From TrEMBL:
Keyword Signal: yes
Membrane-crossing segments per the record: none
Source organism, top-level taxon: Bacteria
Protein name: Alkaline phosphatase
Alphabetical UniProt keywords: Signal
Pfam family membership, one: Alk_phosphatase
Signal peptide extent: 1-25
InterPro entries, per database record: Alkaline_phosphatase
Amino acid sequence: MTSVSLRLRIAVAALVLAIGATAQADARQARNVIIFLGDAGGLPTLNAGGILAHNRPQSLFIQSMPNIGLSDTSSLDRWVTDSAAGMTAIVTGNKTNNGWLSVVPTAGGNAPAPVKTIFEYAGERGLSTGVVTNMPIWDATPAACFAHVPARSDKDMIFRQMLAPRYGKGVDILVGKGRKDADQSFARQGLTAERAFTGAGYRFSDDPGALTRETRRAAILRDEDFAALPTVEAAISSLSRNRKGYMLMVEWDMHTDDPDKGLRHVVEMDDMIRRVSAIAGKDTLILFVADHSFGLRLHGGVRATPLADQYAAAARQPGATRETNAVIGVEDSHTGEEVIAAASGPGAEQVRGFFPNTRLFRIMMDALGWKADR
């Protein structure tokens, strides 16, 4: 055998070993899963938010994530979903009707049947769980993680199930708005919100600063905005103490009926994902997805001038409205096109192509090495 042939065979063997090692690394199991849910964060909203903030296309961290797919968002009974049905599909793997939270229809018109969420699977397996949202904690997206209710407006039942879960031990870290709603709901049971949550083993506060690494279970409810990144980092610090792992959902409202607010929230969530991707560890599946899209479009603008300046100038024109801005226009409604799903970490390679939103549940379960109950 010539030295050239020997070197060639060694090189081929090394390549085969490298491919095998890469495949083995890609097949590693996740210990943690973080879902970043951009509520109404469809492709047009991400596109406009990134250009408005950075004055160049594809400038968001989300748009650099290594695994990208397009998720159908239709619900069981409508082509255009609401957040209740949209999030139910993601966390249970089941399509359901608009307005329903983690329940599905049954034959013969019987009462809707509950379907277990991935947060409840996680709790049963001893993982820590967390829900952080800049919306009310009882609202559709967070509630779909732990409540089984056929009416997303039933705040009393959602709060009741928050503290008396059907499966598992309940969500460990709860952060969101809705303090007044909680007080009103528990008052109908003769309790204060503080008494109800502390009685269920939570540290209760309206200050996100009360959430620390040493916190095991906490409910932080307030009616004001809070700093996104420090709160999410504190939640991860607390949850990551569990050696078995954790499951975290972070919702940030990207509805652009108020485009200034919605597009600012795009950048806030993008900054969160960038930071968390740097600190979460290689055993963490990170998934960004929207529950549905929204009727916002980038209508114009020239590259020579920052888009933010053109958008602001158009807003000052006589008769200009959010709906008729010459640069960014809004039709105030959910829309039905596919939304982006972007992922990194163990199991992320399954996020590719076109797929129903129910597949995201299976991708997360597979990444954790779990099988759903039959």
